[in-house]
Amino acid sequence: MRTAEIDRRTAETTITLALSLDGTGAADIRTGIGFLDHMLGALTKHARFDLRLRCEGDLHVDDHHTAEDCALALGQALDQALGERRGIARFGYAYAPLDEALARAVVDLSGRPSPVIDLGLRRERLGTLSCEMLPHVLRSLAVAGRMALHVDVLRGENDHHRAESAFKATALALRQAVALDGSGEIPSTKGVL
Questions:
Q1: What integer best gives the mean pLDDT of the chain?
Q2: Architecture category of domain 3-178 in CATH
Q3: pTM of the predicted structure, to 2 decimals
Q4: What span, in angstroms and rounded, lies between the C-alpha atoms of 153 and 184?
Q5: pLDDT by residue (tens digit) across 62-74?
Q6: Whole-number Cα distances in Å, 163 to 14, 40, 67, 142, 144
């Protein structure tokens, strides 16, 4: 069973999270930030993970700690659920359009965090989420998940569409990368990830 449960408590957030990599795309997400719930829901659905996430954060301060800590908890859960990363495809890439927007995501579950994210968002906020937090969420996910993650929005006029296409492309790339290839081997010439 490729699952993980995280209980993360700091002075800024309290998070409980349950993740299954071999799910159906079922999402039950409540962070207190509607647009973050929407993006994590899209990621869960298209990666075909199952995710239950609850966060109580210091939203009276701003959205930063909640968004960052949810991404860190999700990345940590992904890392735990992968275990030794034995028998996985390891690499994944995808393009995802949303109307006029088009995003590309490439992932390597290498065990070495290296995020490169360029969403090109122009608005200050989407709902109650600061647009600057969207690339930060993807970076935090990559760092805690110990993966190289490259996400670029190639075109698009609407920032909602740009952001959502980026999260959907990331989901599709992750779905490929976590897929079991039947080998049972660690996909590395080093013998370890």
A1: 98
A2: 2-Layer Sandwich (3.30)
A3: 0.98
A4: 34
A5: 999 999 999 999 9
A6: 26, 11, 14, 17, 21
